[in-house]
């Protein structure tokens, strides 16, 4: 099995290229020690702002692609840290920790696979699709975004031999609507016979995808994006309620227990809360 | 290279840089990045009597040169900690400092009893750090560290139950009118050393929704934003109790930051938020301290302790 975490490293790495990628920025980083350990579904945590930065916390990015020497990341510049990172010239050194987190496991059964990506979340699926296509496994990719410029990896997934279905909120690419509309529509036949589903995107999309997979009894591996301070398992900020094999719910760290979770085990409706029946939940009058 | 070895009372440390409680879990995750035996020591995340789920997310907000956290002491409880985490940490050969936190005076007693039993069973940390920045359920949720009577009771019960040969450090909150008054209470109740300071309470509001950004509404502010507060607290307490060892905590990001706390009167420092941005920070900062002391011709950390009270160095 390849779903074990790798031992992460911390390295000063050179930005090889910083390029536009639709509404996002593609970073190519020379990081051979990270690339050599990388598995599909893992992520890296990058320090931002330079030596005297007032931005103390790392930014986490899913591994998009990697080869023997480089890793590639898709960055959505939406705050001062990501804006700093996407405006550095090639050659800038950045501090990278990775690879982090639990990778996607291989499907247990034979048969086609469905991958579901929302916005830049699709980047996290490319490595997995590449691995599945080596064995010639049929892959259907269902990608959604607010508009066409926020879609990632469409032509790349097509190049890997996946059938790609697209939905956008404004209809600027593919059909107008949500990925879940496609899962219930043109992808419903392949969903029903799929060996597994792999998904990465916003929480509501993951929740809906996990529910769609569960309805047809298919394994669904969801890569979550929770706010993190450290990415390595020490800060306890990125927790979500997950049901264990003993039936008990615990607040698990998405950086080390995830980011890949079995979609059936996450209590999607309770994310952002501490469920009353969670192990160690506050009792009345307590904290 | 300036000599980094230091001591906090009877506890000898190879470097003055320990990890701060709540910022290194129980050491395991950091061991991929630093040799724990080489760091000054590992202060474990505050452990309570029972498993605890913590507060809802979002639990963290980045702020200018700092962060707010509202974790709520999520943890596995003392039984799991003693069975799993502490034996692992002691096995690394580092100096383990066990942080305990209670919601009542009785809970501090229960935790001290379990640590005492473990001590007699051979699980021997270098020290215990009593975190009294917790709401006292029996006192309308007022934090122990903010009330002299509650603080004294919690510290005294822990000292009474812990083995006499196990050093007990007490970590204080900066959110008080007079830190020296609370320090006096902790020393009277049996603290062997004082750890200054815990986070200071803060809050941030979301610009789009105008709602609190933390699930727990308020949270502890840490990072370089609070460093001057820590330096001031260390300086005031060291002036009042020159014989009591102090561990300085608050926004140590680089070597010079640690030197500041040492000059204010700390014999060692703890590094917290810096670890989130740089998991090798405990080792890096110790190296930077040595270089910083070399730069000003101070031969050892011991020579720098409290220098600001003696007219400085050189």
Could you please describe the fold and organization of this structure?
The complex is a heterodimer of chains A (287) and B (314). With 287 residues, chain A is an alpha/beta fold. Chain A folds into 3 domains: 92 residues, Elongation Factor Tu (Ef-tu), domain 3, CATH 2.40.30.10; 113 residues, Rossmann fold; 56 residues, no CATH class. Helix content of chain A is 19%, strand content 31%. In chain A, the strands form 3 sheets. Chain A has a 7-stranded antiparallel β-sheet. Chain A is globular. In chain B, the strands form 3 sheets. In chain B, strands 3-4-7-8-9-10-13-14 form an 8-stranded parallel β-barrel, surrounded by 7 helices. The mean pLDDT of chain B is 96. Chain B starts with 5 loop residues before the first strand and ends in a 10-residue tail after the last helix. Chain B has a single domain, classed as TIM Barrel, CATH 3.20.20. In chain B, helix 2 packs parallel to helix 3 and helix 6 packs across helix 8. Helix content of chain B is 32%, strand content 18%. At the A-B interface, loops of A face strand 6 and helix 7 of B.
CATH class category of chain B: Alpha Beta
Rg of chain A over CA atoms, rounded to whole Å, is: 19 Å
Major sheet of chain A: size, sense and barrel closure? 7 strands, antiparallel
Mean pLDDT of chain B: 96
Shape of chain A: globular
Largest interface: A-B, 42 and 47 residues
Structural class of chain A: alpha/beta
User: Order of strands across the widest beta sheet of chain A?
Assistant: 4-3-7-1-2-6-5
CATH architecture of chain B: Alpha-Beta Barrel
How many distinct domains of chain A?
3
Q: In terms of quaternary structure, what is this? A: heterodimer
Helix/strand-derived category of chain B reads alpha/beta
Number of helices of chain A: 7
Please outline the major beta sheet of chain B. Answer: 8 strands, parallel, barrel
Radius of gyration of chain B, whole Å: 18 Å
Low-confidence runs of at least 5 consecutive residues of chain A: none
């Amino acid at each position: 099995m390849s779903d074990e975490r790798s031992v992460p490293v911390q390295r000063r790495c050179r930005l090889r290229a910083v390029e536009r990628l639709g509404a996002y920025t593609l970073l190519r980083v020379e990081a051979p020690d990270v690339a050599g350990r990388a598995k599909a579904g893992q992520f890296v945590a990058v320090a931002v702002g330079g030596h005297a930065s007032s931005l103390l916390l790392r930014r986490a990015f899913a591994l998009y692609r990697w080869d023997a020497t480089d890793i590639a990341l898709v960055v959505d510049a939406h705050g001062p840290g990501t804006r700093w990172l996407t405006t550095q010239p090639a050659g800038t050194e950045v501090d990278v920790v990775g690879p982090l987190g639990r990778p996607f496991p291989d499907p247990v059964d034979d048969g086609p696979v469905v991958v579901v990506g929302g916005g830049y979340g699709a980047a996290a699926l490319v490595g997995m699709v590449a691995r599945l296509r080596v064995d010639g496994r049929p892959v259907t990719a269902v990608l959604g975004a607010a508009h066409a410029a926020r879609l990632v990896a469409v032509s790349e997934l097509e190049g890997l031999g996946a059938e790609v279905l697209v939905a956008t909120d404004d209809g600027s690419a593919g059909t107008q609507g949500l990925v879940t509309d496609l899962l219930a529509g043109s992808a419903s036949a392949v969903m029903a016979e799929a060996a597994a589903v792999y998904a990465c995107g916003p929480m509501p999309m993951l929740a809906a995808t996990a529910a769609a997979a569960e309805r047809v009894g298919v394994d669904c591996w969801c890569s979550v994006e929770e706010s993190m301070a450290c990415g390595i398992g020490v800060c306890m900020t990125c927790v979500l309620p997950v049901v264990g094999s003993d039936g008990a719910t615990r607040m698990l760290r998405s950086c080390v227990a995830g980011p890949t979770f079995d979609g059936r085990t996450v209590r999607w409706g309770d994310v952002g809360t501490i469920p009353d029946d969670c192990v160690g939940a506050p009792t009345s009058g307590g904290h | 290279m300036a000599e980094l070895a230091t001591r906090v009372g009877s506890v000898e440390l190879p470097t003055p840089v320990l990890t701060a409680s709540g910022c290194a879990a129980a050491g395991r995750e950091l061991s991929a990045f630093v040799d724990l035996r080489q760091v000054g020591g590992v202060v474990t995340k505050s452990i309570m009597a029972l498993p605890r789920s913590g507060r809802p997310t979002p639990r963290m907000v980045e702020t200018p040169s700092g962060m707010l956290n509202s974790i709520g002491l999520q943890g596995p409880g003392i039984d799991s900690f003693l069975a799993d985490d502490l034996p692992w940490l002691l096995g690394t050969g580092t100096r383990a400092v066990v942080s305990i936190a209670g919601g009542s005076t009785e809970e501090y007693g229960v935790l001290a009893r379990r640590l005492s039993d473990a001590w007699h069973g051979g699980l021997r940390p270098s020290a215990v750090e009593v975190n009294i920045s917790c709401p006292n359920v029996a006192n309308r949720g007022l934090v122990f560290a903010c009330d002299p009577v509650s603080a004294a009771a919690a510290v005294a019960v822990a000292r009474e139950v812990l083995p006499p040969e196990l050093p007990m450090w007490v970590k204080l909150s900066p959110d008080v009118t007079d830190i020296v008054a609370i320090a006096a209470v902790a020393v009277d109740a049996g603290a062997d050393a004082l750890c200054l300071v815990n986070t200071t309470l803060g809050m941030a509001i979301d610009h789009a929704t105008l709602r609190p950004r933390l699930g727990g509404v308020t949270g502890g502010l840490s990072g370089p934003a609070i460093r001057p507060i820590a330096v001031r607290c260390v300086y005031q307490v060291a002036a009042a109790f020159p014989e009591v060892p102090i561990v300085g905590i608050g926004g140590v990001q680089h070597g010079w930051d640690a030197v500041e706390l040492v000059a204010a009167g700390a014999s060692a420092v703890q590094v917290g938020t810096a670890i989130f941005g740089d998991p090798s920070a405990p080792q890096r900062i110790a190296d930077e301290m040595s270089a910083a002391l070399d730069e000003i011709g101070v031969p050892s950390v011991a020579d720098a302790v409290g220098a600001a009270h003696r007219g400085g160095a050189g």
